[in-house]
Design brief:
Layout lengths: L1 H11 L2 E8 L2 E7 L8 H9 L3 H9 L11 E3 L1 H8 L15 H8 L4 H11 L6 H4 L6 H13 L3 H8 L5 H11 L6 H11 L3 H15 L1 H13 L6 H15 L4 H15 L6 H8 L8 H13 L4 H13 L3 H12 L7 H14 L4 H11 L7 H17 L1
Antiparallel strand pairs: 1-2, 1-3
Helix pairs in contact: 1-4, 8-9, 8-10, 9-10, 10-11, 11-12, 12-13, 13-14, 14-15, 14-16, 15-17, 17-18, 18-19, 18-20, 19-20, 20-21, 20-22, 21-22
Length: 394
């Protein structure tokens, strides 16, 4: 789908470049004449337009004009061969109006879209050094490396970061070498050298959580709070987890407040979908009226938000309230979300809690659609429940 959209764009415009906007967004820039770039052009544009700098940070997470270069993906010389064999969208092949809209807007994360985006990033552009007027400054290289490291382009990120002496460079080099463990020892050494740097402290908090859970992250969270650098979505997520793990249900209201604070920092767009999801999935572990109120408020503003819908369903199922959960799930199944395995699984759980006689039939339909799910312990338990219902019906 994504390649077809790009191929169609290339058919319309003689000159096309591809830019990355956020984890779920691409920008195709087309023109009648050749597209020329320089470091000075975005700086001049921002300086001449009131409010543009704030808009760049809000919508594209670009903190300075030259950061735009970190978002450059493919030059036309590289894009056209990549999509040359893709279909051209037309009235007889209308993916753009149908499937593309569903993947981008209906689905809260857009898995298909992101999978195609991953394939595109494998052909990451080598044009940016040729297109710049002069060598990029260190801060520009850091932003470019951040994008490449975030997309698991380890060797590219390390090459760009070579010789840069800066806390952020240490963090990115560590991430590029070992994105899973985030190199706790390397970050500790960098902290001793650079002092209480917020980026390094956040990295250590996340590494500690992976190693020993939310409790292990507590000392790093305290240090972030001590220097007034704790207003970060990941920090709020860790605090919420810490409240649940250390205080149980007594910490549920605190957890909901921390999640709400983290969501406010992310803003209303889908560009931080992965982190937004991590925040929301804290709530089912800490059922509370505050958590339900938060999720219902989110869904009032964003009724298409699948992550929030499933988190609310999980809360209701955990609280032994399958009836409202089933009502929400039936609404999801009446929409394009009927194809989502997570929705279908929870539908079976709601039927099981209610003791519905149609559970065996729905389990069979689920297994027909998702045959590999039989290895999942959660599904195995539902299969046993369906067999029990079938025996009682005899």
């Amino acid at each position: 789908m994504l390649r077809a959209m790009a191929r169609t764009f290339c058919e319309v415009f003689p000159h096309v470049d591809l830019w990355w906007a956020s984890p779920g967004d691409l920008l195709l820039l087309g023109a009648r004449g050749p597209l020329r770039y320089s470091l000075e052009a975005p700086e001049h544009l921002v300086a001449s337009c009131a409010g543009l700098e704030a808009d760049l940070e809000r919508y594209l997470q670009v903190r300075r004009p030259t950061d735009l270069w970190a978002r450059f993906l493919l030059h036309e010389d590289e894009l056209r061969p990549l999509v040359a064999d893709a279909a051209i969208l037309s009235d007889r092949f209308p993916l753009l109006e149908g499937h593309a809209a569903r993947a981008r807007y209906v689905s809260a994360i857009g898995y298909t879209f992101l999978r195609d985006l991953y394939r595109l990033r494998l052909a990451r552009s080598s044009f940016w050094p040729r297109g710049l007027a002069g060598a990029p400054r260190d801060d520009d290289a850091l932003r470019i490396a951040a994008v490449r490291a975030g997309w698991a382009q380890g060797p590219d990120a390390l090459a760009v970061l070579e010789g840069i002496d800066h806390p952020e460079a240490v963090w990115l080099r560590t991430l590029a070498r070992d994105p899973e463990a985030a190199g706790e020892a390397t970050l500790r050494a960098a902290l001793e050298r650079y002092g209480e740097d917020p980026l390094l402290l956040r990295g250590l908090a996340l590494a500690a959580e992976r190693r020993g859970g939310a409790r292990a992250a507590a000392p790093w969270l305290a240090r972030l709070e001590a220097i007034g650098a704790d207003e970060d979505p990941e920090v709020h997520r860790l605090r919420a987890l810490l409240a649940v793990r250390t205080r149980g249900r007594a910490g549920a209201a605190t957890a909901a407040a921390e999640v709400a604070a983290g969501l406010r920092l992310l803003g209303p767009s889908d560009r931080e979908a992965a982190l937004r999801g991590k925040l929301l999935w804290v709530l089912p572990a800490a059922p509370s009226p505050e958590a339900v109120e938060l999720l219902e408020g989110l869904l009032a503003d964003r009724p298409w938000d699948l992550q929030a819908s499933l988190a609310l369903v999980d809360l209701q199922l955990a609280a032994g309230r399958p009836a409202p959960a089933l009502e929400r799930l039936e609404a999801l199944l009446a929409s394009d979300f009927r194809y989502e395995r997570a929705v279908r699984e929870r539908y079976l759980e709601a039927l099981s809690q209610l003791g519905r006689r149609d559970l065996p039939q729905e389990v069979r339909r689920f297994l027909d659609d998702f045959p590999r799910s039989t290895r999942d312990p959660r599904i195995q338990e539902l299969v046993r429940a369906a067999r029990a219902v079938a025996r009682e019906a005899r």
